[in-house]
């Protein structure tokens, strides 16, 4: 308050004559002006609000008929209002929003200047005010700004005029901060407050940014409240339904639908259609039918778009889809080309190629008459009805071009798939390359379709080359791409193919996709069985662990990562095997996988240089126990000795190779030379391994 008094005193003494702040006029023979220092001492004793009140009430009033007498009063008032408007703006720039409000309230509520008060508002500098608001927001004082807006609105200010682009950006950052901190209720309340002050909310925040966070909390009430603050609330509400549908949360979507319907006093066709589409995304076709019946019960005739959504959601049920189509005809709703495309889709799903051909003939006749125009989706749907008849499919592609239509990626991908179903991999690859030749940029769908064709036709080499090619072109594989390669588990045979598969598995996990580890585990089991038996024999690599189908959902991340690490090493680094933390079955798989790799490398002419060292769990608690870790070690010993006939040695104390390479031991193990300990180390000698490889080499060659 003292500082503001100083601003009033100093500004008036330097910029305005004394008559602005005093009702008396100056005389020519007045005394020398008082020094600024003395004026400062006087002004410090008076608060700003009293100064403003004194100035406003001291303006002389003239009631006589003479206009000349009233002129000085009007001029004085204008100068006074101009001064206080400038002072208030400067205070606001410094972030002193409360002082701005004190001056504004004093001026705007004064009876003495009531007629001229709009001049004060007009003379407020919005640029300075906006700078101050932005500074306060950047300091994290959002509550102070909201309080300022409330008081400024009460005084009659147009709040949006007090904000420029930087101030709005600072306000938007505060809104996003609340959302990022999970304070979504506060964020929505802020949006509602700003909307009440006639701010354009879409200029402050991205609607989709806040909405995505609200949808993540599955709060339909808050989502509807948020949508209601925007001018395009109906369209945003449709987005809410769609997002809930993508999360397969039909319950929240229905609740939001009912809330918005009650709040808005009715729904437009966009909302009804969106709700039906949500049911389709969630796979709840029965609910889509009940919503449609609810719409009909209100004596509302749905438009063609609502009918199309209902037919599309239920396209798997050809009988119901055609029933909806007849109902549409009975109500006098004219079908469009999308309606007929959905009918074709229903026929394809039901494998009624004959009916699809009849419908296509009808709509083609209508197109020739000009009643409607066929589109790419019509032809693409008809191509899917071709089965393995790639000649018919190619003819439809050519017909599409004669009709002035350009086949899109889906059309070409469908053609590639048909070639693959007919086991014509050459035609599939030609169609795949033609896709690029016609100027269409290849995407993940096209590559995945081509990879699928190669996998189904046992051409993994081309499949992997396409996989590497798409990555070279910066096309990111999706879950379907990875899964297509991993599901070809029964088509892998060589070490190189298994290494490729494990590499894809690791890449898939790094990309954030979840894989079905059970199928990949089966691949490893089948592959490592080749160490124990020939390809014509069948063994259960799971041994005695009473495996059941219920274990198929068990995560095998540690097992698969261990196998991947060992199989991706160089041949010379394969002698150290770490099975710590694995069960008996998992440890068995890892050891047999490494032996399978050694066998294949040996058959390729690579020599065996070292012993195999297997490290099991080591801890003080397990040194003298007969628990799980000892069982694992015993199980591995039995496999190596009894089933493979290898020379296995269990060492106590720190072996020579561990002293030379302690990295294969646990970090907490102590190598004490004086008191030997059971370190849980199993060694397979190089000589025994060579003898085993030579003895079984002939049989493996015969199997190959």
UniProtKB/TrEMBL annotation:
Family matches, as PANTHER family: PENTATRICOPEPTIDE REPEAT-CONTAINING PROTEIN GUN1, CHLOROPLASTIC (PTHR47936:SF1), PPR_LONG DOMAIN-CONTAINING PROTEIN (PTHR47936)
Keyword flag NADP: no
Organism of origin: Musa troglodytarum
Annotated Pfam families: PPR, PPR_2
Protein name in UniProt: PPR repeat
Family: Belongs to the PPR family. P subfamily.
Renumbered residue ranges of the record's region Disordered: 9-44
Annotated keywords: Repeat
The organism's place on the tree of life at top rank: Eukaryota
InterPro entries tied to this protein: PPR_rpt, TPR-like_helical_dom_sf
PPR repeats mapped onto the chain: 268-302, 336-370, 408-442, 443-477
Repeat among keywords: yes
Residue ranges, compositional bias (Low complexity): 10-25
